[in-house]
Amino acid sequence: MNSGKLCISLSARKASELFEKIERADQLADVIEIRFDLLDSGEVAKVLAGFEEISVNADLLATNRPAADSDSKAFEERIRFWESILTTKRFRYIDLEEDLVFALSYNRVFSPELLAGHEIIGSHHNFYETPPDIGPVLKAFEPDPDSSFKCDAVKIATTANSITDTIELWYVLDWAKHYGMQAVPIAMGEAGKWTRILGLAHGAFLTYAALDQGGRTAPGQITADDLLHVYRVKELDRGTQVYGVIAGDTSYSMSPYIQNAAFGKAAMNRVFVPLQVDYLGEFISKMVRPASREIDLNFHGFAVTNPHKQAIIDHLDEIDETARAIGAVNTVFIKDGKLAGTNTDAVGFLEPLVERFGSLVNSRVLIHGAGGAARACVHALQTAGAEVIVTARYDTKAKALAEEFEIAFVDSRDRNLASTKPDILVNATPAGTRGDLENVSIATADELNGVKLVYDLTYNPRETRLIREACAAGCETLDGLKMLIAQGALQFKLWTGEAPDREAMQATAIDRLSK
Q: What is the predicted pLDDT for the residue at 144?
């Protein structure tokens, strides 16, 4: 457990819309942030009047971000706005930018009577980057010995263009502690999501959340429901064992949902977070490896996915025979400071396939793809006695894979299914994945004539374009969800020594994919 607070940030154009959201947020939040700068002109007075008529259990935080082109006239208008807010005495927390913090430190712009009963959060935002040295930013909030004013908390929100940008931001926690202030370090964007999840466990005063999927007020913001019930942020502490998915894009991954469902069901003090990584070696060196890391997040293991399954091998101390035979790692566990790798994809791929198709001995399987997932499929099929053929978008990669595993290769210009006559077609490419590739399929219904089963490793969305084409052709189908659960269950057991509740994992994934 920790003592941090969950703050739901609310934006609305109309007062009526805002109060509807406040009613919903009040059921989840410790603090509710009202973004006055996002209200339509003329609605502020209605909001302030409305607070006289309602009761809110959560503490209220007032925020009024200035326009980028603010001038001296706008500054005076902001002062008058804050005077009206402070006068209401309805807001416990007041969010002020650097210029107002400076004014309060050297030229008291509000009377002590107005400030009484309020806690000031000094805030800085950078929507473009995280500076390599956060020191000059923090200097603006450093208490002046000649001034009686000091912020109660400092919020630094910068954009993480790379996951290692978050390291500099994390230093804010120690800086604030040194000056006797609270800290709110937030790295905006997908690469910074972990800061929103782990912040409270490491002493952050607040973590900001969205009311729902459509209510985000900053990049990378997570919904309050997910922070509370998926990541259990109020229950985490410094002793929480941290796991995560290392991926080039974590925005569509189901792994955090299924693994956290299993951790929660087993009442374990563990959490699984998204880790969007571009430069793998830098991440391992600066954030993971005990001898060289710059911050300690108590990492204990990782799931590894596209595009890092092969590259991760060079950064591990050891890999087992399965990973060596496949040439790819999808699971890392840390023991005694050493990073070890294995691969659960092969077992995860094979288990649902055998359950659906039966014996694979002498069956003919065509795999589209030549990456880490495809390698695991080839290895699994070979051990099961199948005849494997591989093809891919890039012939050089597919041919190299075929030569390494001594299997057949089909040139991308001559890979029509009629000529290869597979019993089973496997999609081990990103084709069909939610987003830009969602409407892409490696085959049409007409091309699937004679194929007995189509196995699409893509699981988000649940029904891909390829699965729809296969259904139209009368083929049996198998989606990637069963593989995801099977390999994820094995990962869980490797990390914890216990078998997970598979039903909880699958139910969570199905629920999430249906939204």
A: 82
Residue closest to 367 by CA, chosen among 416, 409, 426 = 426
* b/e 125-152 (16+ beta carbons within 10 angstroms → b): beeeebeeebeebbeebbeeeeeebbbe
Sign of the dihedral through C-alpha 310, 313, 319, 321:
positive
> 75: Cβ–Cβ under 8 A, 6 or more apart, which residues?
66, 99
pLDDT of residue 127: 94
Instruction: Round to whole Å and give the CA distance between 196 and 188.
Output: 9
Q: How far is CA 23 from the centre of its chain?
A: 27
| 253: CB partners within 8 A, 6+ apart | 245, 247, 274, 305
pLDDT digit string (tens) for 397-447?
A: 989 999 999 999 888 766 566 677 899 999 999 999 888 899 999 999 999
Q: How many residues does the chain have?
A: 515
As a whole-number percent, the residues of the chain with pLDDT over 70 amount to 97
502 vs 493: CA distance, rounded Å: 11
C-beta separation of 114 from 175 below 8 A:
no
- 300 touches 241 (CB < 8 A): yes
Closest listed residue to residue 181, CA positions, set 120, 93, 130: 120
Which of 26, 104, 37 has its CA nearest to residue 64?
A: 37
Any bridge partners for residue 16, and if so which?
A: none
Give Rg (Cα) of the chain: 27
Which of 176, 276, 295, 298 has its CA nearest to residue 219?
276
DSSP state letter for 284: I
Which H or E element spans position 490? helix 480-496
Mean pLDDT calculated for residue range 104-128:
87
Residues annotated catalytic, as ranges? 309
> Percentage of the chain with pLDDT > 90?
80
Tell me how far apart the terminal alpha carbons of the chain are, to the nearest angstrom.
30
d(CA 13, CA 460): 33
By the 10 Å C-beta count (0-12 exposed, 13-18 middle, 19+ buried), 41 is classed as exposed
User: What's the rounded Cα separation, in Å, for the pair 189 and 322?
Assistant: 35
Give dist(CA 247, CA 430) in Å, integer: 13
Give the distance, in angstroms, between the CA of residue 345 and the centroid of all CA atoms in the same chain: 21
325: exposed, middle or buried (Cβ count in 10 Å: 0-12, 13-18, 19+): middle
Task: Evaluate if residue 72 carries a pLDDT over 80.
Answer: no
Instruction: For residue 74, give both structure tokens.
Output: 């706008």
Closest CA to 152 of 143, 163, 140: 143
In DSSP notation, 455-481 reads: EE---SSSS-HHHHHHHHTT-EEE-HH
**Per-residue 3-state assignment (H helix, E strand, C coil) for 260-280:** HHHHHHCCCCEEEEEEECCCH
Coil, strand, or helix at residue 164? coil
The encoded tokens of residue 507 equal 């139910």
